[in-house]
Structure formats: structure tokens, C-alpha cells
Write a structure and sequence with these properties.
The chain has two domains: about 220 residues, Spore Coat Polysaccharide Biosynthesis Protein SpsA, Chain A (Alpha-Beta Complex), CATH 3.90.550.10; about 80 residues, no CATH class. The chain contains eleven helices and ten strands. Helix 9 runs antiparallel to helix 10 and helix 9 packs across helix 11. The longest helix has 21 residues.
Length: about 300
């Protein structure tokens, strides 16, 4: 086994994959492998991967099955005791893995190790993350309350700035397949239900919003709901006592409200009403509007929801 396996899912990201792989190759970690999973790309991204010889690299190719199955295939075909994830259109800072491994050795009881990240906007501006309920930088340690931080601020864990021990994935499972959105947040939350989360406010990755064909730009179907809603129900059926239960309910409320907003923006008004017709515990304690039959009120609420939550 190697110390760290880096898994990159690849689907039609030829303009960016070289940048991502280079950011892996400059990490100051010796016992490391890079596993790129080509999820049925139709561009020349796989050819770019084959031409890269700066680190221990394996290319796995499969039919297009979605980003979750690509990540899971990378996990299954890797040999590291720690699995790191990086999206093909994002990149790491040079000392990301070194700082993460320091967390691993300092907090062996943790189930997930993450670093802060910055966002590159389409206009070229770089915005550092502004987290809630996490001590200000410079700080690293066990996150005081993952669900509270994830409820009231931007997600503290990014799919391009996270590492997970293989033993933890063996216990909680891998990424949920068959889900179009939120499968990464679902896994982080499932881990947070069972383990402490180690975190460093050191910026470890760059999240590129300007990249095309991002997985987060996918579309919901009429039946889609955030996968963690179901995951938490299954978890509750197995547990008699749950820590931070109130904070988890607030987090689920946040997910439901955001899920409804996304459905509205895509014209799925009926599904948005169904989600909001059940009890939703809003993070900002805002009472739901009485919808009636007026679509414009639901649309107005959805557009302004993000400002009320942050």
C-alpha cells in the first residue's frame, strides 16, 4: 500500500486536467499514487493523461456513469491508506498534502481531513472562503461542529480539498451513485455523523468556477432530493442516541430549502412545493410563506433564499 492515493474523476475536462495533475506532481509527498478515472470522455483528456509522466499514475477508463461512480472506481482501484480527491478542473496549493498528512498524524481519530479553499470566479477574481463557526486563521484542529458550520456558512469541506482514510470509507460507504447533485456533501455528512472532522484554515485548493462543464451545473429531475435526507433517516434507524441532533435538523432544513430553490430555478415548481410542504426547520428561523397557487411568490423566495441563509 502507498500512503496516499489521489483520485481525479475526468469527464470532458481536457483544457484543465493537465493543471490538476501538475498540482499533484509538485506535492512534497514521496509514497503517493495518482489515479485518474476517465468517465467516458469524448474529448482528448485521456490522451493528455497518458502523456503525463511526472508522478506514479494510473488511468482507469469506463463508460460514462457519473462522477460518483468515477470516484468510487478510483477508490476501488487505489492502494493508499488515505484517499485524496481532486476535481479535474481544480488545483492544489503546493503544500496541501503535506499539511493534510500533518493533520492525519496529529488527529488519527478523525474520519475526514480537509483544508480551506479559495474560489476563482469567472471574472478572474479570487475569493478566500469565509467559514462560519470555525476559528479564524491561522487555526487547525478538530472542527467544533461540522453541521453548524455547514448550515450557516459555505460548505467547510470541498471535494477538491479533502482526504479520507480507507478504513472510514469501508465503514460508512463510498459516494452514493444515481444522484445528480449533493453526493459529495452526503458523504462528508455521513462521516461527520460517526467521526470528528479535522480541519486546517490553511488554503489548500483552488476551486475554479470559471471552468466549463462543471458537475455542480447538473440538473435535477422531478424526483430529486438531497441524498443526505435519506442517509440520515437510515442512520437514525440504526442509532438510539444521536449527538448534535438539533444542529443536524437545521442542516437538513438548509439542504431542503436549497434543494427547493434549485428546483424552482429549473422550473420544477411542483417538486419545490412538495419539498416545502413538509416541515422544514430553517437555519435562520424564517417561517415559510403561505404559497397558495402563486408561482411568483415561490420564485421570489427561492431567488432571495441564499441571502437569508448566510
Amino acid at each position: 500500500m502507498v500512503d496516499i492515493s489521489v483520485v481525479i474523476p475526468l469527464y470532458n475536462k481536457a483544457p484543465y486536467i493537465l493543471r490538476a495533475m501538475r498540482s499533484v506532481s509538485i506535492q512534497d509527498i514521496q509514497n503517493m499514487e495518482l489515479v485518474v478515472v476517465d468517465d467516458g470522455s469524448t474529448d482528448n483528456g485521456p490522451d493528455i493523461v497518458r502523456s503525463f509522466h511526472k508522478c506514479r499514475l494510473r488511468l482507469i477508463q469506463q463508460e460514462n456513469k457519473g462522477v460518483s461512480e468515477a470516484r468510487n472506481a478510483g477508490i476501488r482501484n487505489s492502494r493508499g491508506r488515505i484517499i485524496a480527491f481532486l476535481d479535474a478542473d481544480d488545483e492544489w496549493k503546493p503544500d496541501f498534502l503535506k499539511r493534510i498528512m500533518a493533520l492525519v498524524y496529529q488527529y488519527p481519530q478523525a474520519g475526514l481531513y480537509a483544508a480551506a479553499y479559495e474560489t476563482m470566479h469567472p471574472n478572474g477574481n479570487v475569493e478566500p472562503a469565509n467559514f462560519k463557526f470555525i476559528p479564524p486563521p491561522p487555526w487547525e484542529g478538530i472542527m467544533p461542529n461540522y453541521f453548524k458550520a455547514a448550515t450557516f456558512g459555505i460548505p467547510p469541506v470541498c471535494s477538491s480539498a479533502v482526504c479520507i482514510p480507507r478504513t472510514v470509507l469501508d465503514k460508512v460507504g463510498m459516494f452514493r451513485i444515481g444522484k445528480r447533485m449533493g453526493e459529495d456533501l452526503d458523504l462528508w455528512a455521513r462521516i461527520a455523523l460517526c467521526y470528528p472532522i479535522a480541519f486546517t484554515t490553511m488554503t489548500g485548493a483552488v476551486y475554479h468556477e470559471e471552468a466549463e462543464n462543471r458537475a455542480c451545473n447538473g440538473t435535477f429531475t422531478e424526483a430529486d432530493e438531497h441524498p443526505f435526507v435519506e442517509s440520515y433517516k437510515m442512520f437514525c434507524n440504526k442509532q438510539t442516541r444521536i449527538l448534535n441532533e438539533n444542529d443536524i435538523h437545521l442542516y437538513i432544513g438548509r439542504l431542503k430549502l436549497e434543494n427547493a430553490r434549485q428546483h424552482v430555478l429549473r422550473g420544477n415548481y411542483k417538486r419545490a412545493r412538495q419539498i416545502l410542504s413538509r416541515a422544514v426547520c430553517t437555519p435562520s428561523r424564517i417561517r415559510k410563506f403561505v404559497w397558495g397557487s402563486r408561482i411568483n411568490r415561490l420564485t421570489y423566495y427561492a431567488w432571495h433564499l441564499k441571502d437569508k441563509l448566510y
